[in-house]
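Tutorial sheet, problem 5. The four components below are modelled jointly, 416 residues in total.
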Amino acid sequence: MTVDATTQTPGADRPRIGRAPATTHGELSHIALQLFHERGFEETTVDDIVRAAGIGRRTFFRYYRSKNDLPWGDFDHLLDQMRRHLASLPDDLPLRDALRLAVVEFNRFPTDEIPVHRERMRLLLSVPSLMAHSTLRYTEWRQVIAEFAADRLGDHADDLEPRAIAWACLGLSLAAYEQWLANDDADLLHLIDDAFHRLSTTWGSTRG
Amino acid sequence: MTVDATTQTPGADRPRIGRAPATTHGELSHIALQLFHERGFEETTVDDIVRAAGIGRRTFFRYYRSKNDLPWGDFDHLLDQMRRHLASLPDDLPLRDALRLAVVEFNRFPTDEIPVHRERMRLLLSVPSLMAHSTLRYTEWRQVIAEFAADRLGDHADDLEPRAIAWACLGLSLAAYEQWLANDDADLLHLIDDAFHRLSTTWGSTRG
DNA sequence: ATACTAATGACACTCAGTGCCGAATGGAAG
DNA sequence: CTTCCATTCGGCACTGAGTGTCATTAGTAT
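Model answer (structure tokens):
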């Protein structure tokens, strides 16, 4: 689903069989984010969105399983990217450095997409309903981290240590995001990098 | 709120003014957990619960803001306990040890409550709707950790490092819970303690 | 034209959660 | 005992998210 609001216009693909789709994930997401920005998330109903998109209500729920899914773009694609990036890192790079680098890369966006990304994350981290729903996406994200960590440690992805590490990485990322959203001129990637380093200090096995 | 299904019976309190409550948080939670256990969470409607409790539907939502809140008992009380426990620890105890001890204590329950607690956590960590909703409760929990860490580090509770630490603690706890639920004969407190130690090893500033 | 395919969208339905308001209940004051 | 008052109850109607069903529409291929 959804590559981008711009790349996947209705019918831009090569001819297919059957009736042409009435819209795209990207277009719906784009329209919805706009409405959320104008009126707020809770104040925007699914009916508002489908009216703005000119599609039927039932059709909407074929594109997105829930209203809560709208702010998430093609998350699966990003997960795949991170998985590949992790796999490409040299074996002798310490685990925590590998994770740090991969998480930083995961959150790198083209300069012109940053404002949209910021607004998306502002929603995801401030609207209770979205905060709650996001947990389910974070679970997939943690799984990618846990699989890599398990591979490095000779464990299974559902063992304690890989999972604990994955949770920690998620927490570091989200703590960095909170800072980023609180400061207009902050640099997200630097904050994430910083968070990883700081945890090393606090949690170092040599001293607390 | 709920202290316990047994301790707070309707009218057990000292005389009050006005009509007597028809039930208690504890009783509702107890009845609901029972139904969830029998038929599953999604398969149990609020109507089922109020029918079993013999109260009106509207009354239910005065006791609990949502169906998702039912599995959480008196969480606020537990948070207070943890806050006090943290404050009581000696100042020269390293931060990560203080956090480890407090988190372990937070999850200590009387032997006879463990089966109920297990069932509660099984629900909270496996039902998507509850997983999502739990995020909101975890936020309060993290705040307690972050406040303590901030105090120790001379930061504010909403600064990067305290928040990152709080996220890490939450992650460690939940990773331990996942292991606990996967193994019938596992010891929760030992798993939590173990998770904290393992993160020290992986994340140690000396080596990765 | 006809057949086939895939997507749309209308309708009716379930369920969670809310606002409103009168009814029920029990203690306190006369 | 009666009246007053505080407080809770619970019915009703409503909104809004999400689902199952199914006829319809709009494309491609023959």
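Marking note: Residues 1-13 of chain B have pLDDT under 50 and may be disordered. Full credit if you identified this.
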